[in-house]
Specification:
By secondary structure, this protein is α/β, with parallel strands linked by helices. It has one domain: HAD superfamily/HAD-like (Rossmann fold), CATH 3.40.50. Helices cover 38% and strands 13% of the residues. The longest helix has 12 residues.
Length: 195
């Protein structure tokens, strides 16, 4: 078995959790309550605005570098949301979708992947069917109790405040990608590294 602690001493996950999160090739994300804090801001013209966290955005970019496809399935749609996803290079997204499991299955088919290669992070009832079907499910700290009950892991971070990044980091560690990606920015993970 791979010595995960030697590779990433800053991120210490239980080995059984990392084993459960291995082999992931696609990660499904909700938007409201996962990539945002769940709050909705409305302009005078009625446009919906959302606040995104740059830590989460970096996590999504790192997944792509590691060959893990991020897929967004959300019940809402807005121009700012589409702009944010475009800026992150996310090309697999479904907007205005209440029934998320069929949308996820369509993406799996398109990517020639299975639920056994899928992870999901969600915070509320509309996310539950995808979370339940995925091989690995995660929920933010402030998720609804039912989402937490289905999750294999609950992040210490809240939605919109780094929960998606924590999910991404876990997948990167489990897949053996974290240390190599860290080295690409000139940092070599070692036992003396600090957070």
């Amino acid at each position: 078995m791979q010595d995960f602690k030697a590779l990433t001493p800053v991120l210490n996950y239980p080995p059984e959790l990392l084993l459960q999160a291995q082999g992931i090739r696609v990660a499904f994300f909700d938007i409201d309550g996962v990539l945002t804090d769940g709050g909705l801001y409305f302009s005078e013209s009625g446009e919906t605005l959302k606040r995104f966290n740059t830590l989460d955005g970096q996590g999504l970019k790192l997944l792509q570098k590691a060959g893990i496809t991020p897929v967004v399935i959300t019940g809402r749609d807005s121009a700012p949301l589409r702009l944010r996803l475009k800026a992150l290079g996310i090309t697999h997204a479904r907007f205005g979708t209440e029934d998320k499991r069929p949308a996820a299955e369509a993406f799996l088919s398109e990517l020639n992947l299975s639920w056994a290669q899928a992870a999901a992070i969600g915070d509320d009832w509309p996310d539950l069917p995808v979370m339940q079907s995925a091989a690995f499910a995660c929920a933010p700290a402030n998720a609804h109790a039912q989402a937490k009950a289905l999750a294999h892991h609950i992040t210490a971070e809240r939605g919109g405040e780094g929960a998606a990044r924590a999910f991404c980091d876990l997948l990167l560690v489990a897949g053996g990608h974290y240390a190599a990606l860290l080295a690409q920015v000139g940092v070599h993970d070692h036992p003396g590294a600090s957070a």
